[in-house]
What does this fold into?
Amino acid sequence: MSTGQQDADVYGQELARIGQHQDKAVDARFTVFQALAAAGLTNEQADDIVSKVEAGAVAGAHTWISESSPPHGSEQHFEDGWFAGVRNVASYLLRIADSTATTGRGLAASSALLLAHLQRQISPAPEEAPAEEPARPWCWR
It folds into this structure.
């Protein structure tokens, strides 16, 4: 197997893992919005809280990246490139955290609508007619 193919396989696995994290984040966000609504918070308040938590997660990634170091014993040229890359990534993460903290995205309202839709789909089916009566097609009355 060539190095390029191995890199592609590794990248595909990473993308799959990122997708799993994103799916779990959507489920968790939905649960948090439900809990905040049950506690009596408005959609706007819930969006504000969740956006701050998400911005904090990005800020945590910023800190982790900013504190990273090049491999021990690296040449100066490599270290200079390493730190330049870290500064670029850290700056980008800071911009993401800033915009995430200040952007009301309306996710609480859309989650509430989705929940209402799902609850309608899950509602129990109407009782079946007794066996002796022929079944009638559903219609508006």
In short: The chain is about 75% helix and 0% strand. The chain has a mean pLDDT of 83.
